[in-house]
Amino acid sequence: MCCSCCCPPAITALFYLWVRSGFSKGSVAGALTFFPPDPPLYKFERVGPDGEILPDASDDEEEEEDGGGSCGEGDGESGERRDGESGDYYDDDSEDDDSDLGTFEIDTPSSHANKRSNGRSRSSESSDDRGDERRRRERDLQRRREERDARQRREREAAASQDPILMMTERSNRLRARAKRRARLDAADAKAGVTYRFVPDASILGDLPSFDGTVHAVKIGPQKRTGAYVAALLYKLRPSECDASTKTILYSHGNAADVGAMAGLQCIVAKNCKCHVLVYDYSGYGESGGVPMEKNTYRDVKMVYEWVVANVTNHEGSVILYGQSVGSGPSCYLASRRANVGGLILHSPFTSGMRVLTPSRALACLDIFPNIDRIKKVKCPVFIIHGKKDVEVAFEHGLALQAAVPEDCRTNPWWVPDKGHNDIADGPGIVEYIQRLNRFVRSLDE
User: Fold this and answer.
1) I need a labelling partner for 222 at 20 to 30 A (CA). Which of 370, 388, 417, 429 fits?
2) Is the backbone of residue 403 left (phi > 0), alpha (psi -120 to 50) or beta?
3) Are 325 and 332 in contact (CB under 8 A)?
4) Count of CB atoms within 10 A of residue 387's CB?
5) Which residues pair with 75 in a beta bridge?
6) Which residues have C-beta within 8 Å of that of residue 15, sequence separation ≥ 6?
7) Residue 42 near residue 263 (C-beta atoms within 8 A)
8) What values do phi and psi take at 284, rounded to 5?
């Protein structure tokens, strides 16, 4: 039992959050682990079926029904039913039901790009009906604005009182409301045949490197359990640069990054390692729907992996899973369940989430991303990268994971002197970083 007299304040706060959330490990993990950039460092510009640029859709002010705020006249339903509902967002926070996270088969594409259908026609509506509908929408919009203002006031009050429990609860409620709106919006876009164009935040990221191949902004989904779509950016080589040995890197980023933040580095990796590279955002990040939770990251990476195999490589052995920091969690999860995956790269990984906070196992019941257990089950070559001066995830985590890799899957690690958690590929270090990646990628065909 935690108490304020013997436990650090952060641990005590987490324990009470766990109790107040009904003993939901997912709620604790979300508050502890996931910090998406706000605002995101990119956006997906919406493009209609005829190539017209559509107005940006707001997560805060999206019309709740009939796909309001979306292109076309879709009714907000996706082409696939989820858990017996038609078009409803299903938010599963159960720690017991993970039946959808077992071993899975690779069969059909998951991309909504292939799920186009016609929206309902409203040409028969009378002007009076349209006027009533417009007034109803305006009232609903005003109500949502008032709810948002009230929520923001509560958040300010929580921040002023420095109550970590209240702050975590308010954040969780906000993310869940966003997820419901985003699910409806993305489903309506999918039905209307909307595509996307990647627009980085140039004011922060500057000019990104050029790329000779093609860059595809896609939303993959929906998740069968949550209804969420996942935003992804694919750097695809030109056909003349590809052969049967060409690999695809599926990149799972760190907890405070998003697709925009990683776009420049992934472009460099694709160009210099001669690989396709797909980087995606976890549920609740950037342009992705859903709520940031441990189990949702597993659903995300599983769905994206299926899409990559079906739409990019057509062969699991051509996929290299790459997990940086918190991304090591979904990457180890998937590698431990897919015997035919081509390789696994872990960059600044941890043995498990709670072990980053404390070596004590007093709160083992709240632990997440048990990489130290899953790494023992992988069947593919593993390359581990860790900075010796990492103060966020101690270097010892990398050492422990390297020792736990099955001997026949173990490759030489890269223990980087004078580097920390996020700077291994910065500055002149990018040269050796690319050389090391290339060496590992080429070794997979030896």
Assistant:
1) 370
2) alpha
3) no
4) 24
5) none
6) 2, 7, 363
7) yes
8) 90, -5
Which residue's entry shows tokens 């045949």? 193
Q: What does the angle CA 127 – CA 129 – CA 135 come to, to the nearest 5 degrees?
A: 100
Other beta carbons within 10 Å of 221: 30
Q: Model confidence over 165-210: pLDDT tens digits?
A: 667 677 778 888 999 999 999 999 999 999 999 999 999 999 999 9
Number of Cβ atoms within 10 Å of the Cβ of 441 = 22
CA pair distance 61, 5, nearest whole angstrom: 45
C-alpha span between 143 and 177 (Å, rounded): 14
Q: Is 325 a catalytic residue?
A: yes
From CA 147, how far away is CA 328, in angstroms rounded?
37
Beta strands in 274-360 (DSSP E): 276-280, 319-324, 343-347
Partnered with residue 346 across adjacent β-strands are 323, 384
Residue 207 burial (CB count, 10 A): 8
Model pLDDT for residues 313-365, shown as the tens digit of each residue = 989 999 999 999 999 999 999 999 999 999 999 999 999 988 887 776 666 77
As a whole number of angstroms, the distance between CA 225 and CA 221 comes to 11
Tokens matching residue 86: 């038609």
pTM of the model: 0.78
Q: Please list the residues that pair with 49 across neighbouring strands.
A: none
Q: Which of 325, 328, 336, 348 is catalytic?
A: 325
- Read off the amino acid at residue 255: N
Instruction: Decide if 14 contacts 366 (C-beta within 8 A).
Output: yes
Q: Which of 93, 281, 367, 390 is catalytic?
A: 390
